[in-house]
Amino acid sequence: MKLLGKALRTCAFAVLAGSLFPALTATAAEKEAPKDIVLTGDAKCTSCHDENDSPEALRIGKTKHGTVADKRTPGCTNCHGESEKHVKEAGRGSGPTPLVDVGFTKKNTATSAEAQNAACLSCHQGSTRIFWQNSTHARRDVTCASCHTVHDGHDKVREAKSQPEVCSNCHKEQRAQFARPSHHPVPEGQMSCSSCHNVHGDNPSQLQKASVNDTCYSCHMEKRGPFVHNHQPVAEDCAICHNPHGTNVANLLKARAPYLCQECHSHDSHPSSLAGLPTDRAANSNAYTVGRGCVNCHTNIHGSNSTVNSATAGRFRR
Amino acid sequence: MKNFNTTFRLTAIAAAMLAAYGSAFAEDDDLEALTKPDSSISVGAGYWTNDRQQQGIFDGMRDDHGYALIDADVVKRDDATGTWFKFETDNLGLESRKISAEVQQQGNMGGFISYSRIPRVNPLKISSGIQGVGSENLRISGARTSTTDSRLPFHDVDLATYRDLVHVGFNKNLLKDFDLKLSFKNEEKNGSRHWGLGSAALFTAEPIDSTTQQLDVTLEYTGEKLQLAGGYAGSWYRNKNDMVCAGVNVNNNPVNCLTATGSASSPSWTPLSLPLDNQAHQFFVNAGYSFTPSTRATLKLSRSVATQDETIPSIRLGGVNAPFSGAPSKLDGEIVSTLAELGLSSRPTSKLSLNANLRYYDVDDNTPLFGFVGNNTTRAVTVHNTPHSYETKSGKFEASYLLPERFKLIGGIDIKDQDRSAPKFVDERYVPFVESVDETTYRLQLRRSMSETLNGSVAILHSVRDGSSWVAPHEPNTLRDGGSIYDRINPLHIADRTRNKWRLSLDWAPVEAFSLNFNIEDARDDYQREDGRPFGLKDGRASLVSVDARYAFSDNWQITGWASHDVTRAKQLSGRWARNTTSSVPNMLKDADLNDTGDSVGFGLRGTLTAKLKIGADVQWTRTQSSYDEDTSAARTASEIPLADIESRLTRLSMFAKYALRKNADLQFDVIHERWKTDDWSWSFANGSDFTYGTTTDGTVVSNKPKQTANFIGARYIYKFQ
């Protein structure tokens, strides 16, 4: 039995030693030539910024940037620069660590917004970002990293439900409007800011399309017409009457009827009526404020195709 | 002894293997967890205790019952080929569901298909006798007389629309730097929408049954200096309904707009037009060229043609609904839009940046003018169609200069020059028009950014809008003083206006654990009202104050909070005249001060109680107020009661607890308390009773529920994998 035990111990030691030896020799070899962990050529960085030091940095492997089979994907230095001083001096001596050449955090105050964005645009200048440099965001020092989390598989700003949270970091007015009773379903996650806005573009209000109406028609094509009877402000700009982010009045109207309508229409008879609720059903001929207001009767207010031979055919009632 | 030996043998071998490979396996696992895409599947159930008419308009959880909570986010990548496989569902158990699948070999080609539904459920309670909701024939409850009873049995009418969107996309890298992208969307929209009869305040519902399609084909070139994107964008709207025939029930006579009786202005059966099929085709080119790393030019060109040439259905009607005999059967509508835009951005020195932009945008309504309404005896046309065209030329120039201490000074000017059409025939101009609008905007901003602790900006804007001579509207009344009623207003979107706006924002992050954001802005519009045109908006104001803060007590505990207060105000002056008056002097001046106020407060807490238990809570409180102060130059009658203020409040408290059952599985509990309260009188009479359509007929009752309180409890199992 003792012999058996000794044999087992010997075997175990042999397995252990045999297993450890290549590991030990490999470790020695790796010290001479560190291996990449995620990206092509990342060993220059990940020899220090490994899973213990910077696990968040390695999460880039979860993203499209980490798809090394796509030969276009970058290594660390493609975005952060060669950063030789940082490589040589980091962790040595007692002084502060020199920063990388191109940094995307607040610590890297030496990297301008243009320089940060240039690192991204060296690959991403095409498609919907052709006009980035003339966009309001670019001209106000917004960087790609201001909105995008590059080292994470779930980039909040690219997901409909979490995108408004990112945008509202700056756009407080729109956040307040989305809290109003009538709003597009952005808080509910059914739409996102980028449903209407190309934040990388230079269209007016950074809209997806060339104009407000063209953007609205993407979903509200029934308003495009042209109608037999076009309502002029409708054909020009939906935002004359509607605030797309949210209002206190139903259907995103900027003001309640009849006030909204009386901002253009003021003449004799009922268009100049005083706002007020009918006392009861018998007074319903004065239903200019209650219910849908003027639209109780002018029900096709966005445009009408009526050909009924009536003198008031052009007034969007049919 | 046997046990000893067995134990020893296993322990020794295990120890040897563990020592040799165990840490390597663990390291590999840790690395995989860090570098491979994450996936999760979540399955659970939830229950709302009450209906949520207001808060449940869009989210698919309007009613008081149980809901299946199913979400999945499956992301796999074949590292050898760089091929992604994605499958995602969101709210699969709800009406507001989304589901998508994607296969993408990165850098080569890929495709996706997605389906989503957006519900929009009308929050009002409607009780009506109307028959035919959802169809093109609507019969409204009639009256009871001494001889007949044309009333129809009442029932609840639930109005809702549903958008079902299927989106298919494909992309292919053709050659180095060349990509082809295809996108096709097909959206079916169904349901019914709150509508009216047209001649009087009677309830009807517009039938919605339409298809919207969008096709985008884009070829892109992305070179080091030159980038191009060009292609085609087509869109089609198809309405399965083209006209509604509606009327008040009389003796159950059949719905019939073809041979209606009565008069054209008050027919027995009223034809209500619907949007007709339309389509648009656009070709576009976008280009950018970087002359140097700091100087870039861009070009944008597009031309689109939108047409509407469907046969107008009401043209076939007879009786009192018969059209003007000279009216065409089709509109032949055509709108041609042309866009040309040139941009230039440059940084001539490291401190100076310049941006310039010239834009030409022409929306040309080429629809021929037809007479659609007229006198069939005299052949005189009284109503034509109304095309509107706009040609807008605009330019922007902006310069920014980097000052010491990371301050940047930005100055800019925007110039807009718009030529506009006005209806040709004076009798068809119901408001004043202008044939051109000019607007010049000056902007100045001082900002500090890219600092580790303190960033901010202060900006001011001044703009002046004015136009050419006005194009007067008609004046159907023969006024004894020779003045005008219709020509005494400045429509808000073309009125001369001066706008002044300023904004201050501040970001302060003194330590990594704490950050504060403060924002205040104020905009004021002053509408210049010429002597002869005193009515319309006088001035407007919009202001906002907001504060956001975040504090991390530790790595495990974090709190966020925000508050905002905003006010939108408009003052407008209107006149009131009696019908067919002979005096341009109004019998009442109405001076209204309209205010909309919003106050919101939010708090969020995220914490880790133990290694396995995470909790969170969010509170949102929002109050909106609207007031309608209106002074009148003449005494109100007893029935002209001033409008009361409206206040609406939403309070929502949501909490969750997530317990890690295993490394790859969580159990999450959610609790929500939601309270909505409003005193909105939109669907009330002055005496507080529910609004009722019609005087002697219809009788549809519409109301909203002023207090809506609901609680939600849900639990879900979340399985995570890679």
What does this structure look like?
The complex is a heterodimer of chains A (318) and B (722). Chain A is mainly alpha-helical and 318 residues long. Among the domains of chain A are: 113-221, no CATH class; 222-315, no CATH class. Chain A has twelve helices and no strands. Chain A has helices at 2-32, 43-46, 55-58, 76-80, 84-89, 113-124, 136-139, 144-147, 163-167, 172-178, 212-217, 232-236. In chain B, the strands form six sheets. Chain B has a 26-stranded antiparallel β-barrel. A four-stranded antiparallel beta sheet of chain B has the order 8-6-39-38, with no helix packed on it. Classes of the chains: A mainly alpha (318), B mainly beta (722). Chains A and B meet through α1, α6, α10 and α12 of A and α1, β2, β3, β5 and β10 of B.
Number of helices of chain B: 1
**Straight-line N-to-C gap of chain A:** 104 Å
The amount of beta strand of chain B, in percent, is over 45%
- Overall pLDDT score of chain A: 89
Which two chains have the most extensive interface, and how many residues on each?
A-B, 150 and 212 residues
According to DSSP, the number of beta strands of chain B is: 40
Counting DSSP E segments of at least 2 residues, the number of strands of chain A comes to 0
Please state the structural category of chain A: mainly alpha
* Rg value of chain B: 32 Å
- Percent of residues in helices of chain B: under 10%
Keywords, please?
heterodimer, A: 318 residues, mainly alpha, 12 helices, B: 722 residues, mainly beta, 26-stranded antiparallel barrel, four-stranded antiparallel beta sheet, 1 helix, 40 strands, disordered N terminus
